[in-house]
């Protein structure tokens, strides 16, 4: 039992990282993308990750999502040690627990909205219905359309439906509004905030846009691979109240 000597995080803690580090390359080309990151994320929290380009945001999100593994330190998902998981265990972890939303939607062009979302329900244990997921992102009237018939914001909402249909414990979003205009971006953020509130899905959103920090429970500022500071929002704003 490789985990037996390790102290599991307290109940209510979804993620716990300790001394987390990630390096790419070696020698003169070595890049320390993450250094000594200690972070706890509670169940149901809405966390925004802010920081300049290259500060390590995607690297951290990818490690939390089991898409990448750390070079040093530990990352726990509940009492599961992701830093010691092999490829097969990480695949199972991602499939059962993680919903991903990226800047680009990665929909299958030849499938309708319903069919794109239904792809996921075949491979998970306890999905919600496809129609429920589509309803939660406000796309019921568009469910038989193809991606090319949808706006960028609508396509992103399909991507969110696809991410949440499996009822993931965590929803990890990397620049979800990066390709969208102001109003459309706000609409997508409203959908993400609603999923977090209604389903209690622990949500982590990467953004370059500091204004989005207002809708988080906590804001984690990264710089040069380190956590520079963590701020708690006493009063969370709705996306409609944000302006930039
Ligand atoms: N596969 C890789 N190989 C080599 N270096 C990498 C790799 N992935 C990331 N890096 C480097 O690690 C550092 C952190 O990258 P990361 O993508 O995590 O930053 P970020 O804050 O998400 O940046 P951005 O906001 O531009 O997406 C950068 O210096 C980047 O060049």
TrEMBL record:
Give the matching InterPro entries.
AAA+_ATPase, ABC_transporter-like_ATP-bd, ABC_transporter-like_CS, ABC_transpr_LolD-like, MacB-like_ATP-bd, P-loop_NTPase
Q: Which domain of life is it from?
A: Bacteria
Q: Name one Pfam family in it.
A: ABC_tran
Q: Which UniProt keywords apply?
A: ATP-binding, Cell membrane, Membrane, Nucleotide-binding, Transport
Give the Gene3D superfamilies listed for this entry.
P-loop containing nucleotide triphosphate hydrolases
UniProt GO MF annotations: ATP binding
Q: Extract the CDD domains matched here.
A: ABC_MJ0796_LolCDE_FtsE (cd03255)
Q: Where is the ABC transporter domain?
A: 15-244
Sorted alphabetically, which PANTHER family does this protein's record hold?
BLL7988 PROTEIN, IMPORT ATP-BINDING PROTEIN
Q: What is this protein called?
A: ABC transporter ATP-binding protein
Tell me which species this is from. Answer: Piscinibacter gummiphilus
């Amino acid at each position: 039992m490789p985990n037996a000597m390790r102290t599991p995080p307290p109940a209510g803690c979804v993620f716990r990282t300790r001394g987390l580090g990630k390096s790419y390359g070696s020698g003169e080309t070595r890049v320390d993308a993450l250094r000594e990151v200690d972070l706890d994320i509670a169940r149901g929290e809405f966390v925004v990750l802010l920081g300049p380009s290259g500060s390590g945001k995607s690297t951290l999100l990818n490690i939390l999502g089991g898409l990448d593994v750390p070079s040093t330190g530990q990352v726990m998902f509940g009492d599961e040690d992701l830093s010691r998981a092999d490829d097969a265990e990480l695949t199972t972890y991602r499939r059962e627990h993680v919903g991903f939303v990226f800047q680009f939607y990665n929909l299958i062009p030849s499938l309708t909205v319903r069919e794109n979302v239904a792809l996921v329900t075949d491979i998970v244990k306890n999905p919600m219905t496809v129609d429920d997921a589509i309803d939660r992102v406000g796309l019921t009237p568009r469910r038989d359309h193809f991606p090319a018939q949808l706006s960028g914001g609508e396509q992103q909402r399909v991507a969110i439906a696809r991410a949440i249909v499996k009822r993931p414990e965590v929803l990890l979003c990397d620049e979800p509004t990066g390709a969208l205009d102001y109003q459309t971006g706000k609409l997508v953020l409203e959908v993400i905030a609603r999923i977090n509130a209604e389903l209690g899905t622990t949500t982590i959103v990467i953004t370059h846009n500091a204004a989005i920090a207002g809708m988080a429970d906590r804001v984690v500022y990264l710089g040069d691979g380190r956590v520079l500071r963590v701020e708690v929002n006493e009063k969370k704003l709705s996306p409609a109240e944000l302006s930039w």
